[in-house]
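Rotation project, supervised by the postdoc (A.L.). Task for the rotation student: set up a whole-complex structure prediction and record inputs and outputs verbatim in this book. Inputs entered:
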Amino acid sequence: MAFGKKKGEAKDPLANTPLSGILDGITDLKEQPIPEGHHLLEVDDLHMFFHTKDGVVKAVNGVSYTLDRGETLGVVGESGSGKSVTAMTIMGLIDMPPGKIEGGDVLYRGKSLLKMSEREMQTVRGNDIAMIFQDPMTALNPVYRVGDQIGEPLRIHRGYSKKDAVDRAAELLSMVGIPNAEQRVREYPHEFSGGMRQRAMIAMALACDPDILIADEPTTALDVTIQAQIIELMQKMQEQNGNAIIMITHDLGVVADIADKIMVMYAGNPVEFGTADDIFYNPIHPYTWGLMRSIPEQVTDEKKPLTPIKGNPPSLVTLPKGCSFSPRCPYATDLCRNEVPKTYTLPDGHYSKCHYALDPDFVKGRAPENSRSYSGGTPRVVIDEPAGAPVAGMAKSEPGTVTAVDGALAQKAPEAASAEEGEE
Amino acid sequence: MLTYIIKRLIQFIPVFIGVTIILFALQNIVPGDPISIIGGDRALPPAVEEQLRISNHLIEVDENGEPLHDENGNYVETPLWKRYLIYMNNLLHGDLGNSYTRGMTVNEIFAQKYPYTIGLAVTAICIEAVVGIGAGLISAIKRYSVWDVIVTLITSILVAIPAFWLGMLLQLFFGIFLRQVTNGAFYLPISGAGGKMAEFPGWVYYILPAITLAAVSTAYTARIMRSQLLEVMNQDYIRTAKAKGLSRGKIIFHHALKNALIPVVTYIGIDFGAMLSGAILTETVFNWPGVGYEIYRAITQRDWPIVMGGVTLIVIVVMVINLVVDVSYAFLDPRIRFGAPKDQS
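Outputs recorded:
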């Protein structure tokens, strides 16, 4: 396990006392080995419903995935698809009631987070699993100094004194690329720009060297150039610390570059899950196709209209009978409208909740043209990425940076590029 | 900050002039001749009346102090603007004029009355801050619990009860009913503010008037505190604090309270300004020798110098308190302390 931040521990006031080992053993789950047969984080068929006056909102309806150290999971979907609720459930940040876990479990290093008491969860939050949020403008407390807020996790989880915490906060701030960190820690959030605040949030989240960093749309509220910097920063920190990242976003471009695995969510359901490569070059769910078609292609000279996904996401209170995407799916059949699709898993773990996921003839010709699944076939695609490209996170949303190389997957020949029935 | 305070002090001038002009005009619109009221049922001797009119700058005099007469033999009334200028001139010299009815200067009257009003206001504001904030906190933290219901119920009732009626109820219960039930062993004074000859120590006299004065504001404070805390608890930075692993107590008292207190402090501050300007109803009900009661008495007797002097004093006090409240924001909210936020995102 790559705990990169040894210099942080040197500052730990308990580091050389007999207490340190004992305390670590008790409080720091992240110091414990992952039990045999378990992953760092396992989300298993999680159901999180909200019981409201209008009915039961099925915000998370059967989400499963696993995550290991150093990995990045991208969670993609429209607003209200349950991305954030899934993450907040892991963190135990959902108010219950109205929220209620209706099934499933979340295992962190083999221990159920959902069964932990509030007090135990407090030692996990910010220490083992940390989270950064969408809007850095409102996520920092306006009446306290930035340094105090960044140092706070150190004070509660590691017993730092106020002064030590602020000193460490300054180190963290300069680590996330804020100049004059010594002065900056004494400033208030309103004296920071949006990008700087998000950097401060990252510094705060990484203060205790967490195992997992959950980023809930960390770049949505930022302008594009800053977005790329923030993504790059998170990647850099991940390389240093070896933590896992769960990156929640509605922007496929954001996850394209940094995610190892991607989960596409729709109406509280993961509709497709696979490696980044699977999702981008071999998507098999019509909703994923729709998302891909809505990405602007900047490289082509000819002007093409974007293809939106028609309609709106269904109400999570009254989900449609059958596949929840069927009312908006251009390929929906009676089967789709009447029966909830099972999870169809390919041998490599890539899965899709579509009745026709395993039917190559269905996928062929309907998937976006630049994907392998479009031609039912073969071209093996690699990402042509110069190391450390500054705007890499954004650039990857453009198919232009993608180079098609010779195929290796033996499937049908790409001759049957049939008419695009999907386009209306 | 200093420039801000100076700027605000300069703003006092037009506000002050505006308020006094309006007031000065109003007292001349109200019917009734104060000088003839002084005499009551009996008519004053013409010489005395003439002297009173001259000393109160109501009629023009020549250089020898003799009243001027117009062609019909009537007194020449001093025009309003001239009287205003005389008033302002005296005011700037610290002279609020003479009472028509009390035979004292207005300065003397207020020097006598104001300490009682200040004492009552401070007592009431302490009750308001401690009880109001406390009840609001309990009600928000234990939302939807029995405590919340009790606080909400009591505050709803209190905001609906007029102060004078509440005062009378308290007088009836603590002053009369309890006295009868306990055969005079236990009761609270219901009138006046004590003194050397009084039967209770001075502070006992503050209990009922202070409760009466504080009741409505305490209820409002509790409600504002509750709603503010609940609103702040929904803010993103509270979620951030929770995600850091802070306990609920720390989140509420460290992260939420300071933010939630800002509007509460405004309300209490403005209310304190209002209380310092004399609680006319409460002071009247309890025969409290404060400025509120004095102004009320002066209005009924057309004793305009007292009314003018009182309001002038109130205007100054309210403006100063408001300034203090605004400055106190800066200690709670750094965004104000360092000027307007510049969001550059």
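Student's summary: The mean pLDDT of chain A is 76.
Supervisor addendum: Residues 224-241 of chain A form the longest helix (18 residues).
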